[in-house]
Design goal:
CATH class of the largest domain: Alpha Beta
Strand order of the largest sheet: 9-8-7-10-11-13-12
Shape: globular
Largest sheet: 7 strands, parallel
Radius of gyration: 24 Å
Helix content: 40-55%
CATH topology of the largest domain: Rossmann fold
Distance between the termini: 35 Å
Oligomer: single chain
């Protein structure tokens, strides 16, 4: 770090997060935001491969705050070993964490630990639900029970990416400092465009590589491909759009390893020749695929109340977007695609300016087909939404806006005391040092030394 890059405060942070080359939106966010925050704070990053160094580093020179980036993906599982022992700022990228806890505890056959943690998190739920999950019958039903209480009661502060989600958490946990901060996304780096966010040469080159006609309307899905991204309904809506005589194509850009039935779904739609499946692509290649797209389909259901980084990426690239009409997104100005075409175009000029088309889950098939037809045939509507979406991103979700919120919340969290949560499940607080203490005691080694030595080998929760 050069002299002009030295932190402007004395706060030292431990940053628990996946980092590239891990394929994760949170990893990408950390890579983008850490250089900005290091102007203000001294930060040591602790991805999973380096997490074991935290204990001795913290003992040698205590950190002022630990920042945990927590989500349902397996990349975050290692953090659970540290949350209760070293309370910090928890950034909840997925405000429902049951999938993570069930996967980790049940895969390790720690059935009693799962039972006690679920009962602690949801004392009002039927106690025998755990047997349903232990029998392997979990999955989508996990969304009904978020399993957050351990996290909320052990954190100095909690941050989420949506104010409505923050309000709900404050109501459920009134003693916890819950703050909202934008999910930032850096600007999309692209060559000079035509003034409307489209680089004609890049677009033609990308479509040529994909064997997609220049005149086609290309819908695209970005990010890890899962059934929750509503790929099945998208395929059916695309088939209906093509059946109406529209030259429409679908670009699926992302890792499909968690969607083993995807090829079957594509075959069933009967339009496989109009679908391009790329698999995982590196970050530097995404702008080219965005250039090939006209409309980005950023759907999600069921939801863990997350904010979609892929959606923000599409907004930053100035692409028209379609999102699911979810309760926590009600403040996003959107259009109903079932309005008449003339009314849709007029609504796009109103205030507040709609930034996306919304899909009603109760009428998903009809709404999605209507959206794709309207957007395929309405270039002016696509342009209007693309510009409004770009301005929405520039106002609310730039990486600089996110960094400013992080600075404020970090300062606040660092000044808050560690919470007292004496009734936590035993496996959350157990440091597994009792055997070492007994052995060390036989040689006159103090229990404290034995405990410190064992912390470096702390069993993962």
């Amino acid at each position: 770090m050069t002299n002009d890059q030295r932190p402007t405060t004395s706060l030292r942070l431990a940053w628990f997060s996946p980092l590239p080359p891990v394929r994760s939106g949170v990893a990408a966010l950390s890579a983008e935001i850490l250089p900005l925050l290091r102007r203000d704070f001294e930060i040591d990053a602790f991805p999973e491969a380096k997490a074991h160094d935290f204990v001795w580093r913290h003992r040698r020179a205590p950190y002022d705050l630990v920042v945990y980036h927590l989500g349902n993906a397996a990349f975050h599982d290692y953090m659970w070993a540290y949350l209760a022992a070293w309370p910090g700022l928890v950034v909840l990228h997925d405000p429902r964490l049951h999938h993570a806890r069930a996967r980790q505890l049940l895969n390790q056959r720690r059935f009693d630990d799962y039972r006690h943690e679920f009962w602690f998190d949801h004392p009002d739920a039927r106690r025998d639900f755990v047997e349903y999950a232990i029998a392997g019958l979990g999955g989508p039903i996990y969304y009904f029970w978020p399993m957050l209480r351990v996290v909320m009661q052990t954190a100095r502060a909690v941050a989420v990416h949506n104010e409505r989600v923050a309000v709900e958490l404050r109501a459920s946990f009134p003693d916890v400092a819950v703050r909202s901060l934008p999910l930032g996304k850096a600007a999309v780096q692209a060559d000079a465009d035509d003034g409307a966010g489209v680089n004609t040469r890049q677009r033609r080159h990308a479509r040529a590589r994909l064997a997609i006609p220049d005149e086609a309307v290309v819908f695209a899905v970005f990010g890890k491909l899962t059934p929750e991204k509503r790929i099945g309904p998208i395929l059916q809506a695309l088939a209906a759009t093509v059946g109406d005589g529209v030259s429409a194509w679908l670009l699926l850009v992302g890792d499909a390893a968690e969607y083993p039935s995807l090829q079957e779904a594509i075959a069933a739609a009967g339009i496989g020749g109009r679908i391009r499946l790329t698999g995982h692509v590196e970050d530097e290649a995404i702008p080219a695929y965005l250039a090939a797209a006209d409309v980005c389909l950023c759907l999600r259901w069921p939801t863990a109340l997350e904010t979609s980084a892929a959606w923000l990426h599409c907004l930053a690239a100035r692409r028209a977007t379609v999102i699911t009409d979810l309760a926590h997104l009600v403040d996003v100005p959107t259009l109903d695609p079932r309005m008449p075409a003339v009314s849709l175009a007029a609504a796009g000029l109103g205030q507040p300016r709609p930034v996306a088309v919304r899909i009603d889950l109760l009428e998903e098939a009809d709404a999605l087909a209507a959206a794709m037809r309207q957007l395929a045939r309405g270039a002016s509507l696509r342009d209007t939404l693309a510009l409004a979406g770009y301005e929405y991103w520039a106002t609310h979700h730039t990486i600089e806006a996110a960094a400013a919120s992080y600075r404020r919340i970090i300062q606040e969290a660092a000044g808050r005391p560690a919470p007292s949560a004496p009734d936590l499940p035993r496996h959350v607080t157990e440091d597994y040092s009792s055997l070492m203490q007994r052995i060390a005691g036989q040689f006159g080694v103090t229990a404290r030394l034995a405990r410190l030595q064992n912390e470096q080998q702390r069993k993962v929760l």
